[in-house]
Amino acid sequence: MSTNKKVKVGLIGLGNIGRTHIGYLQTMDNVELVGVCDVKKEVADRFAAEANTAAYYSHKELFEQSGLEAVIIAVPHYDHTPIAIEAFERGLHVLCEKPIAVHVNDANKMIAAYQKAKTSNPDQLFGIMFQERTLPFYKKLKDIVDGGELGQLTRVTWINTAWFRSQIYYDSGDWRATWAGEGGGILTNQCPHNLDMYQWLFGLPARISAHAHIGKYHNIEVEDEVTAYFEHDNGMIGHFIVTTAESPGTNRFEIVGENGKLIYENEKLVLYKNRISMLQHLRESQSGFGNVESWYTEIPVKTNVPTGHRVVADKFFNAILSGGGDLIAHGEEGVKGLTLGNGIMLSSFKKAMIELPFDADEYESKLQELIKSSKFTKQVKENVEADISKSFSV
Q: Is-contact 354 347, C-beta < 8 A?
């Protein structure tokens, strides 16, 4: 592989997250940014001038005129599907922002288009921007869970309410927090990383029972508070509690197994290691009340390492240049966390526990019904300043 070879990359979408991408792309040695695209001409022109590249006002123009080999898709969620499918059909490598799509049916269409494209272009890559997989504490959780130190897992509880958003945040765009524009609330916008992390660590549950509160604290038509309960076939249960209306928020992750308990909170990872299995102890102990002896250990985590969007993108571009290789997250994985999110909402809509896999057509139909019946009117506030870096979990 030539050390000076570069991937010709186009970027579609220059909103908050698109501007994050354009920032690191300009500093990468293995990338040539051949074009940026936004439907707002003045935005595309401004960022193209700053990045010394060409401006495009439709993704078709970018695809046809820029000479790109790979595309980063950072547009509103519903547009991920048609743009990605067209990119696959043109033989382009795709790195898609989260979530992969709004609903499972659209995600499956994207995956089917990719698999079809790969039959004629086996080296074609599809990645998804799950940059939180690069964060040191989550990587260490994955290492410990996969290593089996906890033995049989019994309970996972994740309280992640550190997603505070004010009303002006939701008012900053006409597409935000609407069924037609965004397709959902906290589960679609803030929590795809959490949903992916849950399934990355534990797999998908067999059953979901959930309550999603619509516009409980904000003037929006989608969910801003969710409490979900998961049942796994191996006996493990899970709790998932999130909201955009709690300040100060909490990010506390408890993972309980027969051999101990992991707690991640406030940038500290603690293991309470049982001397013997609690399941063995509860069966064999002659004491009615005595706990298992456990030892407190603070797990060392090396935090001074590269993380974030750039790491995901760099791995993606290097895989293109080398003709293959592993990615931080392959695009096909995106449907798993989306299944969790759609399942939570479907359970709440139906006011019942649902089984996975659920009927994806039923969820899509419900979404279309919500869009058609919406009478919600947004008052959009222009030029709202937002430091999006504050929204990235650490």
A: yes
Say what the pTM is.
0.94
Q: Of 62, 67, 22, which is closest to residue 46 (Cα–Cα)?
A: 22
On whether both 80 and 147 belong to a single domain, the answer is: no
**Cα 100 from Cα 332, distance rounded (Å):** 9
Residue among 146, 35, 93, 14 at smallest CA distance from 330? 93
d(CA 302, CA 35): 37
Query: Kindly report the CA angle at 97 between 93 and 99, in degrees rounded to 5?
Result: 120
Are 237 and 266 contacting, i.e. CB atoms less than 8 angstroms apart? no
The helix/strand/coil state of 287 is coil
Shared domain check, 379 and 322: no
What single-letter DSSP state applies at residue 119? T
What are the tokens at 361? 């057509």
Per-residue pLDDT at 379? 80
Same domain, yes or no: 314 and 222: no
Q: How far apart are CA 232 and CA 255, in angstroms?
A: 14
Strands 7-12 and 31-37: parallel
- Per-residue pLDDT tens over the stretch 247-261: 999 999 999 999 999
Q: Within this chain, do residues 85 and 182 fall inside the same structural domain, yes or no?
A: no
278, part of any domain: yes
Distance CA 260, CA 87 (A): 47
- The confidence score (pLDDT) of residue 380 equals 85
Q: What are phi and psi of 181, to 5 degrees?
A: -95, -35
For 154, what's the count of Cα atoms within 13 Å in the CB-facing half-sphere? 12
Q: In terms of domains, do 107 and 213 share one?
A: no
Quick count: other Cβ atoms within 10 Å of Cβ 144?
A: 19
Separation of alpha carbons 327 and 318, rounded Å: 9
Residue 1 counted as domain residue:
no
Task: Indicate the Cα dihedral angle 197, 199, 205, 207, nearest 10°.
Answer: 60
Q: Are 91 and 125 in contact (CB under 8 A)?
A: no
Q: How far apart (Å, rounded) are the C-alpha atoms in residues 14 and 243?
A: 27
- Give the chain's largest Cα–Cα span: 77
Question: In the chain, which residues have pLDDT < 70?
Answer: 1-3, 382-394
Q: What pLDDT is recorded for position 384?
A: 58
* Three-state DSSP state, 377: coil
Question: What is the reported pLDDT for 169?
Answer: 93
What pLDDT was estimated at residue 6? 97
Give Cα 55 distance to the centre of its chain. 28
Range of the domain at 149: 132-301+337-391
